[in-house]
Design goal:
By secondary structure, the chain is mostly helical. Helix content is 70%, strand content 0%. It has one domain.
Length: 447
């Protein structure tokens, strides 16, 4: 049974690597078929993985995070089961996706107790993020008006990279690039210069996407990584100088890149509107939506309208008639309040508080290189997405959600007080390996 559990651990790891690497490319898996395909794979593997661990008598670490996650799934599932949602099919569809995110989090949390597996998950996140950033930059430079140079963009928005909307592209990099930045600040030596080049090119792609919210969120995430990367005893003068020099070089290189591509004026003009948000039509539209959304939360304060129902509930509350259909509230917190009520928001806050408090509270005790850098990257990525959620809806994209789920698992595993390696490492190998060693010893003695 132990051998079966070990094999299922490998299958679970391969599944997580698959969703990290594959989900960004079919428009971030926003398409219904891609979303359900990856959700089905993750849930099926999680069920088999859990069963194998139970049969082997292996413990599964989940507390103190099992309670808020299970309660949120039970609460949102009850919206469909008891008919409190205004659109049962949409709520059921979204609930399955949330279940897959919870399954990915649970598997990552347990698998990352093994340092080797944790490193593989970390590298998959940061190198996939770099690959998406490089692809976005390449497509910007060779743009012919079509996704992947073949397909006509649809579903609205301005396409960028493998996403049909530039804001989704920026959101994905906000969730992945901080992991690479934290690794660099942590002194990683593995392909250091290649990783630095990838981070620079990907950051340049975020600027070229003209996503103001994505740019602000990425700056917030990098600043978080910067602050948390200080040694526990405090930064020395030499380290402060190195970090300051690195920051100056990074900013200067981005400016040089924009000038070289003849995009500096265009990007600066876009970023200047952040200082006067009411001068832009998109921000005026957002404030109008928020104003119309508040009565929705007041009408159903406890239970909400149901997961994935905002698009159907909003038209009845619009004060200004419009032919444009808003699919989301452009504010993750307000939309969660409308769809799941106060109960859902409290459960989300409970989970986030336990997640970030545990990670930041134990961060000082971790070595900077390896575990500390991994935890810093995860915390910074979550911080960036939480900032981005104030004016947009990045978590509508499954590719972003799977990355966040895996990073949450890494964050918990790296700060767990008694993180241990799986049985094969702790006991010196599997039973099959032990039998092989025994045979070798016997043959050697006979000779």
């Amino acid at each position: 049974m132990i051998g079966l559990a070990e094999r299922m651990d490998d299958v679970a790891l391969a599944t997580l690597l698959l969703v990290i690497v594959a989900t960004p490319w079919p428009l971030g898996s926003r398409l219904a078929w891609a979303s359900m395909l990856f959700a089905g794979i993750v849930i099926a593997v999680a069920v088999l993985w859990t069963a194998a661990r139970l049969l082997a008598g292996s413990s599964t670490r989940a507390l103190p995070f099992a309670a808020p996650v299970a309660a949120f799934l039970a609460w949102t599932g009850s919206q469909w089961a008891f008919g409190t949602t205004i659109y049962a099919h949409g709520t059921a569809f979204e609930w399955v996706r949330y279940l897959s995110y919870a399954a990915a989090f649970l598997m990552a949390l347990n698998l990352a107790a093994d340092e080797r597996r944790a490193r593989r998950l970390q590298r998959a996140v940061m190198w996939t993020g770099v690959a998406v950033g490089l692809f976005g930059l390449l497509q910007f430079l060779t743009w012919n008006g079509k996704l992947f140079w073949v397909y006509e963009p649809y579903l609205g928005g301005t396409a960028f990279g493998p996403f049909n909307n530039r804001n989704y592209f920026a959101g994905y990099l906000v969730a992945t690039l901080p992991v690479a930045v934290a690794a660099l600040l942590g002194g990683t030596r593995r392909r250091r210069w290649l990783l630095m080049l990838g981070v620079w090119a990907s950051s340049l792609a975020v600027l070229l996407s003209l996503s103001r919210g994505g740019t602000v969120a990425l700056v917030a995430a990098v600043a978080c990584a910067w602050l948390l990367s200080r040694p526990a005893a405090g930064p020395t003068a030499e380290r402060r100088r190195r970090l300051a020099f690195g920051a100056a070089v990074g900013v200067a290189s981005l400016i040089v890149g924009l000038v070289w591509l003849d995009q500096a004026d265009r990007v600066i003009a876009r970023l200047e509107t952040i200082l006067d948000l009411q001068s832009t039509a998109s921000m005026v539209n957002r404030t109008d939506i928020w104003r119309d959304t508040l009565p929705m939360a007041i009408d159903r304060p406890l239970a909400g309208f149901g997961l994935n129902t905002y698009v159907w509930a909003l038209p009845a509350y619009r004060r200004t008639p419009t032919s444009f259909l808003e699919t989301n509230a452009h504010n993750e917190y307000l939309e969660m309040l409308v769809e799941t009520g106060v109960v859902g928001v409290v459960l989300c806050v409970w989970f986030l508080a336990a997640l970030l408090r545990g990670a930041i509270g134990r961060l000082a005790a971790l070595p900077m290189r390896s575990r500390r850098a991994r935890c810093v990257g995860a915390v910074s990525a979550w911080t960036g997405i939480l900032v981005y959620g104030l004016t947009d809806f990045p978590t509508i994209i499954p590719a972003i959600d799977y990355v966040l789920a895996v990073l949450a698992g890494l964050m918990v595993a790296v700060t767990a007080p008694r993180a241990v390696d799986p049985p094969r490492r702790r006991h010196g190998g599997s039973r099959t390996t032990k039998r092989r060693r025994s045979v070798v010893v016997k043959v050697a003695v006979a000779r």
